[in-house]
Amino acid sequence: MTIEKLSNDSIFQFISFLEKSFKDTYQNIYPIEYIEKIINDFYSPDNIVRDNNKDSEDWQGYYVYLENNKIVGAIAGGQVQDNIYQVFMLYVHPDFQSRGIGTELLDFITNKQIQYNATTQIVNVSVDNKSAIDYYEYKKFKKIKVVKNWFLYSEYKFKDYRYSRSLKI
C-alpha cells in the first residue's frame, strides 16, 4: 500500500478508476447525462496526461493509493489563493471504502500543502453528497457557504457547499 504521483503508464487504469468512483459517488445525486458529460470532458486521456504532467503550487498533480499495483484511491489539490489550498478531488474505489484510505490520502495532500505554507484548506462538496459532508465535517472542516457546482455547465444549476479548515499549528 503506497501513495505516489500518478505515472503516465497508469493513465488508463486511473481513468477507469475515476469513471467507476465518480459514477458510484454521484449516481443518486446527478442525472446520468451530467455524470457522463463530466467524465468525457474532464477525465479524457488527453486531459489526464496534460494535468498529470503539471506540478506547481496551484496544481499539485494526481496522487494515487495503490494496493497490489491497483489504483484504489486518488486525490488532487492545489493553491487557489495566498496560503489557501483546495482539495480538488478525493475518491476511494467503492470496494475499498471505510478502510482509512481516504484519510491517508487527505493527510498526504494536507502535508504537501503545508509544505507550501498553506494555512487554510478548502473543499467543495455537492449539497446532496451526505457521505462526503459527514466525512469532511468529521475531519474538522466547517461549512462556510453555498457555491455553484464547479463544473459550471450552464444548463445545470447544482450547488456545492464550500468547506474550510485551518491548517495552523
Structure in words:
With about 170 residues, the protein is an alpha+beta fold. It has a single domain (about 1-165), classed as Aminopeptidase (3-Layer(aba) Sandwich). The protein is built from five helices and seven strands, in the order βαααβββαβαββ. It has helices at about 10-25, 30-40, 45-50, 100-115, 130-140; strands spanning about 1-5, 60-65, 70-80, 85-90, 120-125, 140-150, 160-165. A seven-stranded mixed sheet has the order 1-2-3-4-5-7-6, sandwiched between helices. β3 and β4 (about 85-90) form a beta hairpin. α1 packs antiparallel against α2 (about 30-40). About 25% of the residues are buried. The mean pLDDT is about 90.
Summary keywords:
169 residues; alpha+beta; Aminopeptidase; 7-stranded mixed β-sheet; globular
